[in-house]
Design goal:
With 357 residues, this protein is of the alpha+beta class. The protein contains nine helices and four strands; from the N terminus they run H-H-H-H-H-H-H-E-H-E-H-E-E.
């Protein structure tokens, strides 16, 4: 029979061409343009490590003033070093994130138009993306360490400010000594503002980047399953949980309906292709109620000799564990799924039944 021509065929060809070009980007290993993050104007002003110029007076108080000025200079030098390292780390994170997203975008585009199961090109790109994500995680750790050092700068600055204010009460000074102390106090206050702003920014950034890394690890796990099958599964299941509105309490239903399996996987042949139907069914269940949990039950036939039943029970348990691993790799949080075992007279072969709880 002659196949009818689809009006969407040109669009499909265009999508395929875009996917191929996206994949060629990581195959050619083209460099990604490095992203430079310039300092804010107020931050750049604080990068001057020198303390304000003080007029020596030769008084007893002047010796203390000069000591405080040297301490302020050392503090500003430390803040300067931390600011430079923060900017360099942020630039590295932006660079790694751009490379990672390029790789993931190429893999996703290739999978959306279809490819061979276990394509070695996609596996290589996936490994590279995993390496970029690991580098991103290391740089988030550097930001966390920097946050500790900046907190130490804040403690030093507050102590220095207190010492400067105490110096006003020292005897044996002249008016110029107090003018010098005014300069030190003003500069210390500006430095404290820069430090506190940086502390807040680092706390927000570490929290945001850590959540991003955790989310992208789930994305890579879902992509690994898709690469093995040669087609796209979809977004990680955790994304559906996070994006869904607050669930409405479910109405009570009869016990028999509660035990009706959402999915039944019969292992009657090698390499049962269950992952895509499983993903679709679990996604639909989460769309209906994001608060649901799942029970994965390995079911063995309740017939035959005791040795046969024991062997079937072991097979069912192993297959159920594989289904649980697949769900976790698809992005379902491990605390949303439980594992159980059962026997059934109506089961002709070992089965795995997934229930909504």
């Amino acid at each position: 029979m002659k196949q009818a021509r689809s009006p969407f065929r040109p669009l499909v060809l265009v999508a395929a061409a875009l996917a191929v070009s996206a994949c060629q980007a990581f195959q050619r290993d083209e460099p990604v343009q490095r992203i430079e993050i310039p300092p804010a104007p107020e931050e750049a002003a604080a990068l001057a490590a020198a303390a304000p110029r003080l007029t020596p007076t030769g008084t007893v108080v002047d010796a203390r003033v000069q000591q405080l000025g040297a301490e302020l200079g050392a503090l500003k030098a430390g803040v300067n070093d931390n600011l430079i390292e923060v900017r360099a780390t942020r630039a590295a994170i932006a660079d790694l994130a751009a490379r990672y997203q390029t790789l993931v975008g190429g893999i996703t585009a290739r999978l959306q138009v279809g490819t061979t199961p276990g394509n070695p090109e996609l596996i290589s790109a996936w490994n590279e993306a995993q390496g970029q994500l690991a580098g991103l995680e290391q740089n988030v750790g550097r930001l966390s360490s920097l946050s500790t050092r900046v907190a130490a700068n804040a403690a030093t600055a507050n102590f220095l400010q207190s010492s400067i204010r105490s110096a006003y009460r020292l005897a044996g000074g002249i008016d110029q000594d107090h003018r010098n102390l005014d300069l030190l106090e003003d500069d210390t206050s500006r430095t404290i503002v820069v430090i506190e702003r940086l502390l807040n920014e680092l706390a927000d950034e570490v929290s945001r980047q850590s959540a991003t890394v955790a989310s992208e690890r789930r994305t890579l796990a879902s992509l690994a399953l898709s690469i093995n099958s040669g087609r796209m599964f979809g977004a990680p299941l955790a994304a559906r949980i996070a994006a869904a509105p607050a669930p409405v309490p479910a109405r009570p239903v009869p016990a028999a309906a509660q035990r009706r399996p959402l999915v039944t996987i019969r292992f009657d042949r090698p390499d049962v292709a269950y992952r895509q139907p499983l993903y679709d069914a679990v996604s639909a269940a989460l769309d209906r109620n994001p608060a649901v949990t799942f029970e994965v039950q390995g079911v063995a036939p309740a017939r035959g000799e005791p040795a046969d039943q024991a062997r079937a029970a072991n097979d069912a348990r192993r297959q159920a564990e594989g289904v649980v691993r697949s769900l976790v790799e698809m992005g379902l949080p491990s605390d949303r799924v439980s594992l159980s075992a059962a026997t059934a007279r109506d089961a002709a072969v070992t089965e795995v039944r997934v229930f909504v709880r």
